[in-house]
Amino acid sequence: MKEKLLEIKDEYLSFFTPAGEVKALNGVSFSMEEGEVLGIVGESGSGKSVTAYSLMGLTAYPGKLVSGTIRFNGHQVETMTEKEFRKMRGNEVSIIFQDPMTSLNPVYTIGNQIREVILLHTDKTKKEAQERAKELLELVGINEPEKRLKQYPHELSGGMRQRVMIAIALACEPKLLIADEPTTALDVTIQAQILELMQELREKLGMSIIMITHDLGVVASMCEKIAVMYAGHIIEYGTADEIFYSPKHEYTKGLIRSIPKLDTEEDERLVPIEGQPVDLLNPPKGCPFAPRCASCMKICLDQMPPKTELSDTHYSHCWLLQKDQFEEGGRGL
Amino acid sequence: MCGGVVHDTNSKRKHREDGSELKKYIIKRLALGIASIFVVATLTFFLMNLVPGGPFVAEKSISKAAQEALEAKYGLDKPLLERYTTYMSDFVKGDMGFSLRQRGRTVSDIIFSKFPVSAGLAGIAVVLALLLGIPLGCISAYNRGKFADNFIIVLATCGIAIPSFISSVLLLYTFGSRLNILPTVGLNTLSSYIMPVTALAIYPTAYITRLMRSSLLDVMGQDYIRTSKAKGVSSFKTLFKHALRNAILPVVTYVGPMLAGLMTGSFVVEKIFTIPGLGREFVSSITNRDYTMIMGTTIVLATLIITANVIVDILYKIIDPRIKLK
Amino acid sequence: MSNKFPSLQLKEEDFLPASAEEKQSLVIMRKSVNFWADGMRRLRKNKIAIVSLFFIIMIIIFAYVLPSFWPYSYEQQIKYSENLAPFEYGRMEQELIDAGESVFPHICGTDKLGRDFAVRLMMGTRISLSVGLVCAALVLLVGATYGAIAGFAGGWTDNIMMRITDILYTIPDILLIIILSMALKPALESLAARPGFGWMQKMGPNLIAIFLVFVLLYWVGMARITRSQVLILKESEYVTAARALGASGGRIVKKHLLTNCIGTLIVTTTLQIPSAIFTESYLSFLGLGVAAPMPSLGSLATDAVKGMNTYPHLLILPAVMISVIILVFNLFGDGLRDAFDPKLKN
User: Fold this and answer.
1) Cα–Cα distance between B23 and B29 in angstroms, integer?
2) CB contact under 8 A, A301 and C22
3) Rounded to the nearest 5 degrees, what angle is found at the Cα of C144, between the Cα atoms of C263 and C261?
4) Is residue B325 pLDDT above 60, yes or no?
5) Confidence at residue C163, expressed as pLDDT on a 0 to 100 scale
6) Which residues from C are below 8 Å from A306, CB to CB?
C-alpha cells in the first residue's frame, strides 16, 4: 500500500506560558492520502491552526510537542531539527495565512517576496526566478504580471494579495498546501473567487490541501474529509457527506444547525451554541464539550469518551454513542 | 483560466495619485516649518521687550544721558511695532545687529564663528549614537529575555535617566580631576573631545537602543515575519532582511528630536568643559542680558532645528513606501 | 479494538442526564475581565516596577517625612561648622561633645554656610518632587482639557486647535523655556510686590515661572494624546452602531475603551514627572531655577560644581539623587504602561 502523505498519531502539544501550561492539542490523530482535501473545522482555540503549524515546526518556544508522532512525506517530523524544517517549509509544505494585508512585508516588492522562496529552495538564477514568479502570477489569475512584480503589497487589493500569497505558496510545487482561514479576511465575493482558484489549482497540480476554517460553508464546497475539532480534540471525523448529512456529535450538530440557510423563514431564529469555550489552562477532565451540551450525562463530566467508529470513514467521541452500545451489553465494535 | 483574470482598477488610481500626494505633503510641511520659525522670532522679540527698562538699565556705570544715547543708537527709543518690523526685515536680509555686550562685533559674526565648533561636537555625537545604539538594540531584541538583553536594557535605562549635565559633571570629576587623564578645558587636543562627546552622546545612544529594541520586537511579532519563517528563511536572514528594514523607520524619525536634544545638551556641556561653541555663547548672552545676541542665537538655533525636522519628516515619507499613499 | 470498558466500571446511573448544577461546577470561569484588576495583577508581577515603586515611596518619605524628625533645619547656619565632610564635627560642636553632650552627626556634611547638608538634600528632593508633581498635574489639566475639547468638537474647531499645536510642537522647547524663564522672572517679581500676591514672594517668582513655562510648553503632547483617545472613543460608537449584535457588545467595548483611555493618561502623566524634574534641574543649572535659600536638587548641584574638587560630596549626592529619581519614575511609568496598555502584551 502506498505510504500516506501525512500521518499524525496521538499528538499532545502544549504552550508553556507565564500563566501556565496551555494544553492546545490533546491526543490528535488523523492521516491524509496524497491528493486529498481535508477540512479542519472548529472555533478559536480548538487547536485547528496549531495542528497544522506543528507539522511545519512553527510552534517552537513557548510551544512544545509533549508526545505523539507526525510522519509527513517520509519525514519523522517530531525528530526534525530547525535546519531540516527550513528545507521543508515553503518547499514540501506551504502555508497561506488568514490576513494577506499583514502577511506580506510592506517594504519589499511582490517580485522580491516571490523570488525569495524560489531562490531559497531551487538552483534557479535570479532571472529564472523572476520568470517563474511571472508564471506563478499568471497561474493565480493576476493580470499584468510584470507590472505587479514591481509593486508593493499596499498597492494591491485584498483579493490580489491573497492570490500573491498563494503564488508564493505554490512556487516550489509543494505536496501539501495548508490554508489557514484563507478567506476570512476577504469580502464574500472575493472569497468565492479564491476558493474557486484553489480548487482549480488543486486539480491542475494534484496537491493535497488542508483547509482550516471555522466556516462550514467553505468546507462544504471543497473538502472530501472533514475533522471537527474542539478544545484540542478531534471530536468527529468523516467524509463531507457524513458530516453534513449525518453528524453524530452534539457539537457538530450544533455547528450545522447554526448555519443560516437561504430558505430559512423570516421568523425562525438562528440557533447558536450556548456557553463559553474551554479554558485550555485548566481543561476539564471529562468531555470538553460537556458543559455546553444539551444532552450531557453524568459520565460525560467525568471521563473523556472513547472513539466510536460509525463507518469505515466516520468516527466520533461521544458517550451518547457509547450509551447505545452499553445498553446492548457492551458488545463493542 | 484560473479563477478569472482580475483587474485591479483601484491600484491604478492609487499609483497616479502617488507623486502629487508627496508634493502636497512637502508643501504643507515647509509651510508649517516657516510658520514655526516666524512664531519663534515673534515670540522671542516680544518676550525680550517684556523685561522692564531695557538692556541698559542695569548698567550702573553709565549716566542717563549716555543711556539715552545708547538707546537711540540701537534704535530702542522707537515704538515697539516699528522696532519689530525693522528687526524682522533686517533679519531676513541676514542683518542681526550688533552685540550689546561684545562691542564692535555683529551678532551674525559671532554666531557663525562659534557654530562650527558646536556642529562638530554634535555631529560626532550623532554618529556615535547611531553606530552604537542600533546594533545594541538589535542584539537586545534578538536575545530577548536572556542576559545580554537584560544587561543592555539596564544600561540603556540608566542612560536616559542621567541628565547630560550630571554626566558631564561626573565625567569631569572622575576623569578630569580625580584621575586626571583627560583634558577638562577647551578642544585643543584630540583627547579633549572624548569627555564632551561622551556626555552629549549618552542620552541619544540609550534612547536609540531602547527605540530600536522595541521597534524590532514589535516588527518580529508581525505576520509577515511568520510568513518569512513559513517560507523557510533562516532566523538570521529574517532578522536582517525582513525585520530590520521595517524596524529602523522609527529610528529615522527620532533624528529630528535627537538634534534638538543635542542642542539642549550642548548648552551645558560647553559651559562645563569651557568649549567656545554656540551653546555657551547663548547661555552667557542670557546671563549678560545681551538682547541682540539672545534674539539672533535663538532664531538661528530654532531655524536649524526646525529645518532639520522638516528634512527628516520629508525624507521619512520618501523612504516608507506605505506612507506615500496617505 | 479491544474491550473498551475493562477498568471503567460503568454503571447505568452514569448514563443519566447531568443536571445544570453539575455542569456549572465544571465550567471554570475565567478570571474577571475587569480592566483595573487585570492591570494591577500584571503590575504586581513586574518586579522592576515594584522595586521602583518601593524606591519612590522611600524617596517620598525621605523628602516629606524625614525633615520633620531631623534635628537640623535647612536654613539653619551653624557657625564654625562650614564645609564639613560627612560625619565630621565643627569646632563648637566638638566642644559640646567633649563637654558630654551628644551632637547629631552631619551624615552628609555641611555646605559653605554651615548648613546641614542631609536636610538640605531632603528639602531639595521635596522641592524637586513637588515641582515635578505640580507640573505634571498642571500639564494633565491643561493638555487633557484642550485635547478633549478638540476631539469632541471635531470639524473646524478641531482643525484650528490642532494647527496651533502643530506649530508649537515643532518649536524647540528648550529655547523658549530659557527665554520665558528669563523674561517672566522680572515680570513676576513686580507682580509679587503687589498686595495680595505676597505668597508668590515666598515660593519665588522663579518657581512660578518654571510652572508656567513647563505647562506652556508641554501641554501639547498631552493634548494630542487625549485627543486621539477621544477620537477612538467617538469611533467606537459608529462601530457598535454598525454591529448587528446588539447593545451588550457595545457597552463593554465603550467601557473598556474609556478605562483604557484613562489608563493611557495616567501613564503619560506619570512619565511627565521625571521630565519636569529634569527640566527644573536643568534650568537651575543655567541659573534660572528656584530662588535661594530654597534648595532644589538642581541648584544644590550647581552650587557645588565650583568646589567640586575639594568638596565632591556636595556635588555627587544631589547629582546621584536626581538621576535616581528620574530613573525610578521612568521605570515605574514604564511598568504602568506595560500593565495597563493591552496592546503591548500578547
Assistant:
1) 10
2) yes
3) 25
4) no
5) 85
6) 4
